[in-house]
């Protein structure tokens, strides 16, 4: 599915653009017109794609197969992130190395390098339930796990009931807190792939796209403007917005998939970014420019969604270009190619 790699590239651009605006421009998420909107679906979309690709219909779950998968994921998703986190603290950190490292470890986001670690945790849990699904010849175990993950996600938005419990040091140091926020989207993508033929038929109906657009519009309107759902209920329109916006992006790339093949200018470049997402993710924190004057200008002229995007995306593309350049230099060495980016 070439369009899927292109969509992954598009999502990576959103991730870098978000960090350019937040960390490079120093924009305030409370003032920015684009940051709160982008955050609704950029990471859910990334985990959706990861879950979608995790399903392998031909996989035969044996202990040897399970062990080889786990080792492969550990080697790709733990060591590279650890190395680049240390490099980031040395090159861009605000504190001495030991203090900066401990601050990152105490945070569930690990200085930005949480994604691969949390994705590994997701894979470890998913593999067990995928093996169970194959054994019982049913997708029910994955569906039940998705319901459980959704319930955990809902609980972290209930601070009075679960706030102190989920904010305990274990959940921060282990990044389980981030796992609970996003695991549902990984599983949703996996279920979509398992029922892909039926999902595509649903996408192609006359009513589904208008329905999703309507849900996205009113959910965003309530979350950003109306605030009819307050307190813990605020999470209801937010969740509807996350799912509907994510589905719209998936439907868009699938519907216009001919525009995202390797034979097209846009498709070729988006796919290249899509297959280098790990490299870009690991490198872009180190290469982000510091341009606070841009953020000051945008904050002083808010709200302007188009201006925010026009400012952040070109800088993000430049950062991505340099990430790919540095990645290609590092990949000259077979050892670095394997242990930094998991490619032999």
Short description:
Helix content is 77%, strand content 0%.
Descriptive overview:
The chain is mainly α and 344 residues long. The protein has one domain. The chain has 18 helices and no strands. Helix 1 (2-24) packs parallel to helix 15 (277-287), helix 2 (35-54) crosses helix 13 and helix 4 (79-92) packs parallel to helix 15 (277-287). The protein starts with a helix and ends with a helix. The model has no long low-confidence stretch (mean pLDDT 90).
Mean pLDDT: 90
Cα distance spanning the termini: 23 Å
Based on secondary structure, the structural category is mainly alpha
Strand count: 0
> What assembly state would you assign to the polypeptide chains in this entry?
single chain
How many helices? The count is 18
How many strands, what sense, and barrel or not for the largest sheet? Answer: none
Helix proportion: over 70%
In the residues, how many domains can be counted? 1
Mass-distribution shape: globular
Tell me the layout of helices and strands.
Elements: H1 2-24, H2 35-54, H3 63-77, H4 79-92, H5 97-106, H6 115-136, H7 140-155, H8 159-166, H9 169-173, H10 176-194, H11 196-203, H12 208-226, H13 235-255, H14 265-275, H15 277-287, H16 292-300, H17 305-330, H18 334-341
Helix pairs in contact: 1-2, 1-13, 1-14, 1-15, 1-17, 2-10, 2-13, 3-6, 4-15, 6-7, 6-10, 7-10, 12-13, 15-17
Characteristic key phrases:
344 residues; mainly alpha; 0% strand
